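Bench notes, afternoon.
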Amino acid sequence: MLAWLILALFLSGLAFAAIHDVATMTIPNWVSIAFAVLFLPAALLVGADWASIGWHYLYGLIGLIVCIGLFSVGVFGGGDAKLLPAVLIWMGPGATLPYIYGIALSGGVLALVFILSRRLIPQTAIPGFLHRSVVEGPGVPYAVAIAFGAIWAAKSSVIVSQIIGLTGLAY
């Protein structure tokens, strides 16, 4: 039962961040904090040792340092720079490369979709909830790519795959 709750919180956090980013081009800080905090009970639930938990948090810290650098040169926004490493904590050492690959792949597709939509779709045809991200902003709601990258790499993540296993879901 607890595994279902943790999995639901993980997936709904990804979905919320992506939808909120599309609608407002922002990601609330509490979402990133929740990912970082919720990881500890999730890791303990699957029996991870303290060294493994420490490695996961270290990867998140390294990711945060890299993302702050990318934010400072304008590669992505502050919300993205906090969400990406918060989710990276869940991915850990074994899933870092698939996670980054999934983000890069989906981010490229997402950027192409937004570039084309901004050039080909009349502004009056854009629904209200997409107005901020499609019409106004030059940026891309990158939480969508971060969420896709996490789902892409979930099977490679020891912690996430074990939580999925505890639910009885085939993955």
